[in-house]
Task: structure prediction
Amino acid sequence: MAAVASLLLAACATTPVIHTRMAIGANLSQAHTYAFVRHPGTDHGPYKSLTTQHLERAVMQQMQARGYTLIAADAQPDLLVNFRIRTRDRVVGGMGPAFMGSYWGGWGPYGWGDDDWGGGPWGWGGGYYSDLRTVTTAALTISVIDRSTRSVIWSGTASSDMSRHQRYHPGRSLDEAVQQIFRHYPIPAGAR
Result:
């Protein structure tokens, strides 16, 4: 039962939750060209990070599928695209009394158990167990900016608790998040 619950929690934790916003009066169908901002939120130095490079490829596929053409940022595109990733750690789980000191208790004078926790010298009773763990929530935001007004006109955010697999295979996670975000884009793929 615990294994099934763990699998269900892991499945829920990796499915991103999507939130989108659009500026009042924005019309993305009138735009035809786009470029990426020079210094996106995913870069923290004078170089283009691996994350930025991956996101540019993934977003390029989505924008081209919607009829937009990528041009140089200094060629005055209709739209600019920016990325930002934020993470937040939180501690989840609980603590409770241990029922068998020989299994859950601390180290006592005879190996298991501890007189300070109410257990006997032979390890029966006393102690606490802890099921505390740190969970990292990551949120990717893609912002589409009207270059002429320098205002965000649409943004989509995918957020989820990161699994160990996602941390070790970030490319797949980024691809999934970009696809999920663009499913909510006002212009569907292949519409123009």
Summary: The longest helix spans residues 50-65.
